[in-house]
Specification:
Oligomer: single chain
Number of domains: 1
CATH class: Mainly Beta
CATH topology: Porin
Shape: globular
Order of helices and strands: HEEEEEEEEEEEEEE
Largest sheet: 12 strands, antiparallel, barrel
Strand order of the largest sheet: 1-4-5-6-7-8-9-10-11-12-13-14
CATH superfamily: monomeric porin ompg
Length: 227
């Protein structure tokens, strides 16, 4: 069970590597790590979790897989594989649009898979702001999310990356809630292609949702390899 996330990412990495032989413009990155909680849009899904991803980019397009394997999911079958893809379009030197979709797959919960489309814009200005709109066709929800971030360079091989997020989820049945989050990571460059990051995260929402509605503070450790 716990090795499923590693096997999936290894297989995906092999497929991307094979494709790279014939398409040198293809680039990809692999990340893996552990989080003391898994929180999605202000709602705690599980506590300790293994997480990993692989993403390939070709020109302005991208395709990736993100996975979570919960070590303690409160009996909620929180194992998850998300397959996503999209395309970016630069309006000018400062604004880039992003179009795409995500398939949320839950291998332990039959029939609960959902598909979500999104469109967003990011701005190459101070604090790197971005704004996104998501629509889940199966859950019938709209999500509006904005974020800012800033990286403080400490020296040639390390930095502190900071981020703030705020979002609003609107359900078709009339329900809604707002959520907020903050992250702080210390990032150290082990080599030209490998980074390690350790940090803390905080998230909360304004309603009685999930298992820790009054707020979550947790930590994480991850490694990222770029090729």
């Amino acid at each position: 069970m716990k090795t499923r996330i590693l096997a999936t990412l290894a297989t995906a990495a092999g497929l991307v590597s094979a494709a790279n032989i014939t398409a040198q413009e293809l680039a990809y990155s692999v990340s893996y790590g552990v989080e003391s909680e898994y929180v999605f849009r202000g709602v705690e899904i599980a506590s300790e979790s293994l997480q990993g991803s692989i993403e390939a980019t070709y020109g302005d397009g991208y395709l990736g897989v993100w996975a979570n394997e919960a070590l303690d999911d409160f009996g909620s079958n929180a194992s998850e594989f998300d397959i996503y893809g999209g395309w970016g379009y630069a309006l000018n030197d400062a604004i880039t649009l992003d179009f795409g979709g995500t398939l949320y797959h839950y291998p332990d919960a039959k029939g609960d898979d959902t598909f979500e489309a999104y469109v967003g814009a990011s701005f190459d200005t101070a604090l790197s702001p971005s704004i996104y709109v998501f629509h889940d066709f199966d859950l019938e929800t709209f999500t509006f999310e904005g974020s800012i971030g800033h990286s403080v360079e400490l020296n040639e091989v390390s930095s502190v990356d900071l981020g703030l997020t705020a979002g609003y989820v609107d359900f078709d049945n009339g329900g809604q809630y707002a959520y907020y989050g903050a992250t702080a990571d210390y990032v150290y460059q082990l080599s030209e292609t490998t980074d390690v990051a350790v940090g803390v995260r905080y998230s909360t929402n304004d309603k009685d949702l999930g298992f820790s509605p009054d707020g979550n503070l947790w930590g994480g450790l991850s490694f990222t390899h770029s090729f």
